[in-house]
Amino acid sequence: MKIRTRFAPSPTGYMHIGNLRTALYEYLIAKANGGDFILRIEDTDQKRYVEGATDIIYATLKRVGMNWDEGPDIGGNYGPYIQSERRNIYAEYAHKLVELGGAHYCFCSKEDADEQKDEEQNIKFQDPCKHLSLEEAKARVAAGEPYVIRQTINKTGKSKYHDEVYGDIEIDYDELDEGVLLKSDGLPTYNFANVIDDHLMEITHVVRGNEYISSTPKYNLIYEDFGWEHPHYVHVPPVMKDAQHKLSKRNGDASFQDLVAKGYLPEAIINYIALLGWNPGNDQEIFSLDELKKIFSVERLNKSPAIFDITKLTWMNGCYIRALPLEEFHKLAMPYYKECLSRKADEEFLSKVLQPRVEVLGDIPNQIDFIEQVKDFSNDLYFNKKMKSDVEVAKKTLAEAKNVLVEADVWTNEALFEKLKALAETLGVKNGQILYPLRIALSGKETTPGGATEIAVILGKEETINRINQALARL
Ligand SMILES: [Zn+2]
């Protein structure tokens, strides 16, 4: 049997991290087993529809390399892949289910249903229409009375099914409510559409949030009523913000797009979220998508919720940035240079110095702001116990360093470093007593990406001398 999984997002215009992780697990289950990964757009809830949102879904999946085998844009043998284009299919099956006794026509208004339902006491809606004869109900439908199609649950006892993560699940049929399957506008609810689509598209493994564990028996009843086999279920725990709260758009938690905009690499995000709920069984933490495709297994999915730890993601992102070829890093860093640098600087050398020190691309402007301009700083910055530097030392060594640098004709890190080292020997001071004050004079900052001579190379000779002069004037 060929494994077939589907990612079925709603076009909300927002790629939630939890949804992306679900997509990833669906993709990996298919690809680890030579199967197909299908993209289906669940747009039957027209209230939630956002213009252009499907493009965000396409762009996100493409960006992370999760290519789908069938979908709205590329077609396939099981289309259409957009639920709103399948409305006739749902209607046909909903009416068929009524004939099979698995559903019934309901003429109650939404208010009737709401009035009877008591959320606090958890009283189930007892639909009077359930007891109408099929002929009578059909006559009312034929007469043009508005209706919905509601699931009929006559079974008693316990519903049982197996979940690949949570094991055997048992739920009382009594606890299941007879929800609407087909709305009065002729569109299906999620509860119905997911069953019909998964069956017709021959989906073998359904991956979704564990909040669906308790409604799955309702879906299984629909499969049974049609005489169909239900798919394998893989319910996954939520991605949490902290011990109590799920990650959510409402709370302003970062989406995939937000993280990318902050300078997280898509590869790092995918790697990180793969490990939010799955473990490889060893200490390895860095995995490419291709590696994950080879080793992913449902058996190693966790039952307990995972907390989204931005510090861990940031660390992992730093690993990915350091592993990039320099040219690649330079290309990614350029937009940030453009954003904050108007003066001439040796940008290629800057990238070389910066790459090992960047964890998130969005931090680059903060790290390099001194290149554009030295902010006003206190001379106290020259004091550094470890470097044996203070204002007096700075006064003396900056002037000497300037004389050496003015004479320098080769402006490279190595050449400048050798010259200043030789100067330290001549003056009988430690290297740090020259390099530390020089770095402060050139940057005005205690921490910088790169040492004094590296910064001198980035700034160029003229600006380096200018800044030393300005610093000396303030000492
Ligand atoms: Zn009713």
Strand elements, count:
11
Which value, in Å, is the CA radius of gyration?
32 Å
Overall residue-averaged pLDDT value: 93
Indicate the CATH topology of the largest domain: Rossmann fold
Query: Which molecules are bound in this entry?
Result: zinc ion
Key features?
single chain, Rossmann fold, Glutamyl-tRNA Synthetase, domain 2, two-stranded parallel ribbon, 45% helix, elongated, binds zinc ion
What do you see in this structure?
The chain has helices spanning 17-31, 53-64, 87-99, 110-116, 134-142, 190-200, 216-226, 256-262, 266-274, 289-295, 310-322, 326-340, 347-354, 364-372, 391-407, 413-427, 431-443, 452-459, 461-474; strands at 4-7, 36-39, 103-106, 148-151, 158-163, 167-172, 180-182, 205-209, 232-236, 239-240, 306-307. It contains 19 helices and eleven strands. Helix 7 (216-226) links the parallel strand 8 and strand 9 (232-236). With 475 residues, it is mostly helical. It has a three-stranded antiparallel sheet. A two-stranded parallel ribbon has the order 1-2. It is elongated, with a radius of gyration of 32 Å. It folds into four domains: 85-236, HUPs (Rossmann fold, 3-Layer(aba) Sandwich); 256-322, Orthogonal Bundle (Glutamyl-tRNA Synthetase, domain 2), CATH 1.10.1160; 326-372; 379-474, Arc Repressor Mutant, subunit A (Orthogonal Bundle). Helix 12 crosses helix 14, helix 15 (391-407) crosses helix 16 (413-427) and helix 16 crosses helix 18. The protein is 45% helix and 9% strand. Zinc ion binds next to loops. Zinc ion binds at residues 106-108, 127-129.
